[in-house]
Amino acid sequence: MPDIAAVKAALAGQRIETPSWGYGNSGTRFKVFTRAGVPRDPYEKLDDAARVHEFTGVAPKVSLHIPWDKVDDYAVLSTYAKDRGLELGAINSNTFQDDAYRLGSVCHPDPKVRRKAVDHLLECVDIMDATGSADLKLWFADGTNYPGQDDVVARQDRLGEALAEVYGRLGDDQRLLLEYKLFEPSFYTTDVPDWGTSYAHCLKLGPKAQVVVDTGHHAPGTNIEFIVAFLLREGKLGGFDFNSRFYADDDLMVGAADPFQLFRIMHEVAKNGGLDRAANVAFMLDQCHNVEAKIPAVIRSVMNVQEATAKALLVDLDALAAAQAAGDVLAAHAVLMDAYDTDVRPLLREVREERGLHPDPVAAYAASGWQERIAAERVGGEQAGWGA
Amino acid sequence: MPDIAAVKAALAGQRIETPSWGYGNSGTRFKVFTRAGVPRDPYEKLDDAARVHEFTGVAPKVSLHIPWDKVDDYAVLSTYAKDRGLELGAINSNTFQDDAYRLGSVCHPDPKVRRKAVDHLLECVDIMDATGSADLKLWFADGTNYPGQDDVVARQDRLGEALAEVYGRLGDDQRLLLEYKLFEPSFYTTDVPDWGTSYAHCLKLGPKAQVVVDTGHHAPGTNIEFIVAFLLREGKLGGFDFNSRFYADDDLMVGAADPFQLFRIMHEVAKNGGLDRAANVAFMLDQCHNVEAKIPAVIRSVMNVQEATAKALLVDLDALAAAQAAGDVLAAHAVLMDAYDTDVRPLLREVREERGLHPDPVAAYAASGWQERIAAERVGGEQAGWGA
Amino acid sequence: MPDIAAVKAALAGQRIETPSWGYGNSGTRFKVFTRAGVPRDPYEKLDDAARVHEFTGVAPKVSLHIPWDKVDDYAVLSTYAKDRGLELGAINSNTFQDDAYRLGSVCHPDPKVRRKAVDHLLECVDIMDATGSADLKLWFADGTNYPGQDDVVARQDRLGEALAEVYGRLGDDQRLLLEYKLFEPSFYTTDVPDWGTSYAHCLKLGPKAQVVVDTGHHAPGTNIEFIVAFLLREGKLGGFDFNSRFYADDDLMVGAADPFQLFRIMHEVAKNGGLDRAANVAFMLDQCHNVEAKIPAVIRSVMNVQEATAKALLVDLDALAAAQAAGDVLAAHAVLMDAYDTDVRPLLREVREERGLHPDPVAAYAASGWQERIAAERVGGEQAGWGA
Amino acid sequence: MPDIAAVKAALAGQRIETPSWGYGNSGTRFKVFTRAGVPRDPYEKLDDAARVHEFTGVAPKVSLHIPWDKVDDYAVLSTYAKDRGLELGAINSNTFQDDAYRLGSVCHPDPKVRRKAVDHLLECVDIMDATGSADLKLWFADGTNYPGQDDVVARQDRLGEALAEVYGRLGDDQRLLLEYKLFEPSFYTTDVPDWGTSYAHCLKLGPKAQVVVDTGHHAPGTNIEFIVAFLLREGKLGGFDFNSRFYADDDLMVGAADPFQLFRIMHEVAKNGGLDRAANVAFMLDQCHNVEAKIPAVIRSVMNVQEATAKALLVDLDALAAAQAAGDVLAAHAVLMDAYDTDVRPLLREVREERGLHPDPVAAYAASGWQERIAAERVGGEQAGWGA
């Protein structure tokens, strides 16, 4: 049976990174709905992220997205974060929102466009140096929409070349995290469509290159926890972009669509050492809160990851291994389900209270008056969102 | 064996409706790429549509989208169209691009929002009266993103009520075409997610309500031609929104992703009387040309529908029926494939030449200088696109 | 807040029907694994079903499959069931395991084959008269594997004709439940592929025809609870064939693959009156226990349905409606999740104990010695399974 | 423009391997339909395969499946093949049709079962030595049905160990081809579910291990031609198991469900050197002819591959590259489609006639009287099929 004190310690020590863009407006291709109080610059995003950390106690890191979070002086931004108990996390590159990138960025047929894209990636490493960020997270929208549009193999060559140059620029304590995605915004081929492609490139690049698993980026029916376990076995799991989906890359709150899947993922993480600090797996959110209130949605998402983690930590691994070795399908399944069926909310409330936090972060945030304050104060200016 | 003269006559008589928004800018949630020469108002869209009709000879109708194509005087717009050999086609409503519609339009929990949405739909019928359009095409983005967000059944009640009011407003020669879509922009429930839901509502409304099949709006694995055949059998197929997809609602050029599927659809249409004028099936395009040149893409799309139709008309229905009755699977399949494997481009070139058209619409358009002219002339002002 | 006494009463009164074939061997096209103690005839299947009811208290009904459960005298079988506290449930027809049905049964191009199939269906109604079964459950494997193989519309005509004849034969208290399935064993078209097709036929047949939802028979991404809610609204939900799947029609234990989905389904059922006796919704299992022990798997499945039902009954519908009316997405979602996150196993243990049952049916069955007994006694003869 | 003489030479030199089991009975889990004239032993399967080669001229190789094609003396079988103009191709292992393999074979938790499985694989290499087969094709049904059932990572360890032992046994001119499959017969995890897993294992094993792409083994939406291009770029594409599907692993005739996809695959093969003898890509069929006549279905399948290859060879690669380099999406797409839209049947008829073959293999087979002969002669005995 799991040791409850150890479970609590693990939960208290967990770190979940929230994305700056989760605090801004977002939407679909049909409409971006605006909301009162949305931040207008990176500083206000950090103010909101600070609330999430204040009430959950496990979200001190904030991912930035360049150029959406571009500032004149990253040292100032970093200090601003530290003053609020935060630190700057992964730097996310953007090679998809410039008219030059219509046919791709690092895979574009035109070397001038590729140069522009690689220069942006190198600039991101410069920013990492300035912010102290350890992770460069690369997601490429590159691909094609029509059969014949471009040469699949030539694009891989260009991709490999760009990655090699960026990899060579990384400092000793910096990583390149390569994300994959089945489709969107490319609708025929995507240049890094699956974990296999990302893994193959990371293998060639070297130990500082690892795969990022975005839980919304797979084909229907894909067993994500298998991929997670496989990558952990190979030492190639760099981290997660958590969110959930019923259909495509819906970017809903993690755990909202299939909490059992999230539990199964966290079970593989926990069982295979992925919660150990040494494994250096980054647990990041990457979500769009299109119709719901943004800060409470981030809080709920952090809590959903916590609850899945708690359940994963409650799995009786000895009993599980024994039933598996005996080939007792139902008994092994029952061990796993017993943990999943447990209501871990009381346990997490205890963990919070033991750390001096309010047991219910959602209620605490609601009572804090922050939402009313930002709605009143943040008027005028341009709200942050996709592309801003 | 099909009578070639009859096939040619059918092809010459076919009508394919192009959407005004296909000439404007479009994109994904990540980026809308702008292109030189894109229209800045509904009149310029008609100018472009006129080129498509000029070179293909089968695309005289243009669907409008309200409010994107709002003008002060629709009689003027209608005359402008007629002067260019065009006529105004289906009126498409828009109940998804106003901040009020964050949680839905005709299914919104707040009756004030529903009133606003229904008023817009009634306004669309007013516009139909003014333009002489016969079809009101309704697509609702309504739905929810999270389990529990709203009451599925209550939303159906609200939907039914709104549809009934609009249906009651239709003139004798007007139809209500109800589109369905699996998901996007709603990511948990969609209020009209599949043909069954649309069919059930149309059945209750009456004979002037019919289903529209958008070829990109289905779950993976859905057999679209089955739905088409079923709806034709029931007299409930109002028309198509043609496009193609590899993944979700990719809105690629029709026939680009799976030309065999398009052929199978047109085979069911042709075999079940759907090409007859009396069947009144509207063959409309609904596409987004995100990375390719827009007018040539519409021309190519029209030609793709023509080619699929030509192949469908070449199916030897007698031989097919005989093989089917004999239970000879391979022979029946071979009859269908024989038509599909035929290169119908020479036949279509003949059809065009017999009508005094250039045999190659793409080449004719390229040679016309139109693209260069609009790129030069259409500077300043705001380009039309999603939402404009 | 839900009234716990009422919740308990509802749980105690719930009835879950188990399938006779769930006790026999089953497998995939690659292999049927045999297991010790598997029944060799319908009587031994009832013996096993009696154990499931003995330990769960909510599974008195057993679905039969004809001809797998054919006996000389159904009155004897019925008495045998009653003596064990059971009753015979839905009669399932089989028009797919005869060489005559290679190209279909009721939709076959050859009228002689259709006659044979319809005669079998009529025989099933005769058996219902003998057993007192109220439900005729029809699933047709009919369809085609290749484009062109047969005429989609003609097949619908034949289907409609067959259904009408069978419907006409039903007694006043008998129902025809029409199941749909996306694919398998047909791989191009299926003649009843989706709920819309089943619904349209049931509507034409009349009030005694209703739709059965098999939870494993949908395209990826289909929102099953929407269909359930829609059918309940229309009075056309006849019942469920419960099972679960990660991929296609995997026929795993219900609740094993996506327990949250099962909860959402049961939430729609409970909220829309589907648990009321008057609604007459049949909650049936339809599963294949290919690798796990069969009787404990059925017990676990029954418990999974109970747990999902318990959670659904715990949803605070007033709070839900209030949050929905207020348009508070996160609050409404939280009300639903609060019920789902509750560990309902203690409540169900109480319900069992109050009825004089062992609180843990799995443990009680294991302790009963039944498995050892049947393994020892049921030697010789032919084990029952798919097709036997 | 492609040189027609070279295209013809390439088509005449193409080799397509047919599977012994394609000539036997097959079916779904619901029913195996028997057909008159089906072979009763490996020799009769070769007799049928000889007809396919006789009429197509490009199918001299026959894949065997052990133990379905077990004979006492493989030298005799090999001679029997040679006497009919055939040679024995890939040896396919079977570690899924023994009761011992209920929970897996090389990944089974019990080392005794793993030993049994590995011994079978080694026996297959012995058979390769006897038959002169160069390829060992491994497909593992291994996996789990329920979360928790077994340890995903431990299973990978066992898999790696088994593969290493078998790899070590290979002769200098022998290859290990590792197939992957999303699901079925395992319904939760599959131990080699995707190309990435197969690729990672092959990379560790060494140059004699390569990936096999079965065109029916992917998640919905997977871009297969991308995988093919990627593996060719890495020198890791061992071959194909060709078939087609609308849904899951339907095992329909290749090219029947999506002929455009087959063309796109063959385009990547042709463009990236995969048709060169040096590339050593095996073009194998792996199909089940459940409802259609078997030998004509194999002939049709071979022709479908030929037609897709012919179209791929007709792609004007210079024009394609020029349009791609220019970023002209529609022009590049048009170059590809121009080849696809071509009716290549006349060209293939010419290729056949120049080689002294009948231009229409289907008609030639029908006229040969073979089907009538085997229906009359092959009576008594047990028909071959899955598992026999």
From TrEMBL, chains A, B, C, D:
<dbReference type="GO" id="GO:0008740">
    <property type="term" value="F:L-rhamnose isomerase activity"/>
</dbReference>
<dbReference type="InterPro" id="IPR036237">
    <property type="entry name" value="Xyl_isomerase-like_sf"/>
</dbReference>
<keyword id="KW-0413">Isomerase</keyword>
<keyword id="KW-0479">Metal-binding</keyword>
<dbReference type="Pfam" id="PF01261">
    <property type="entry name" value="AP_endonuc_2"/>
</dbReference>
<dbReference type="InterPro" id="IPR050337">
    <property type="entry name" value="L-rhamnose_isomerase"/>
</dbReference>
<dbReference type="InterPro" id="IPR013022">
    <property type="entry name" value="Xyl_isomerase-like_TIM-brl"/>
</dbReference>
<dbReference type="InterPro" id="IPR013457">
    <property type="entry name" value="Rhamnose_iso-rel"/>
</dbReference>
<feature type="domain" description="Xylose isomerase-like TIM barrel">
    <location>
        <begin position="50"/>
        <end position="248"/>
    </location>
</feature>
<keyword id="KW-0464">Manganese</keyword>
<protein>
    <submittedName>
        <fullName>L-rhamnose isomerase</fullName>
        <ecNumber>5.3.1.14</ecNumber>
    </submittedName>
</protein>
